[in-house]
């Protein structure tokens, strides 16, 4: 689209719009078809991410009990689990669906109220608009 973009994190409507946090448009009757398509694609991407983290936590259940280890060790532990998980996935190591039992109960609380508008970055709307245009140019999917 002619503008270099850095990486962004995906958030939901409860997060403030920042140039590094991509969140959907607020659902209302004024959304364009392009904005609705953007929200749909963001929701699909978010579900893929949630599924990946669910599988990671299920395979490496030490991640469910990280309060047992020191804060200095935590980044190394998470990185090691991610690397081992990716190796297992790349080599089609079977994933046991029974591992999923109990992992959903450990979800951390998420904010339930939208972030105040004052926390939003005015320039971030340009990033979201560029991504919205990009998604439209990619066609259906």
UniProtKB/TrEMBL annotation:
Its main location: nucleus. One of its GO terms (cellular component) is nucleus. Keywords: Hydrolase, Metal-binding, Nuclease, Nucleus. One of its GO terms (molecular function) is metal ion binding. It comes from the Eukaryota. Residues 5-86 form the DDE Tnp4 domain. Pfam families: DDE_Tnp_4. It is found in: Nucleus. Its cofactor is a divalent metal cation. Belongs to the HARBI1 family. This is ALP1 protein. The lineage of its organism: Eukaryota, Metazoa, Chordata, Craniata, Vertebrata. The gene is Alp1.
């Amino acid at each position: 689209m002619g503008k270099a973009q850095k990486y962004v994190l995906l958030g939901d409507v409860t997060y403030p719009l920042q140039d590094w946090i991509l969140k959907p448009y607020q659902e209302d009757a004024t959304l364009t078809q392009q904005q609705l398509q953007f929200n749909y694609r963001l929701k699909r991407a978010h579900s893929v991410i949630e599924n990946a983290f669910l599988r990671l936590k299920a395979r490496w259940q030490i991640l469910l009990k990280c309060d047992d280890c020191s804060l200095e060790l935590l980044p190394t532990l998470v990185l090691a689990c991610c690397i081992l998980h990716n190796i297992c996935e790349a080599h089609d190591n079977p994933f046991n669906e029974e591992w999923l039992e109990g992992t959903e109960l450990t979800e951390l609380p998420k904010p339930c109220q939208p972030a105040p508008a004052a926390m939003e970055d005015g320039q971030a709307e340009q990033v979201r608009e560029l991504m919205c245009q990009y998604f439209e140019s990619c066609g259906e999917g």
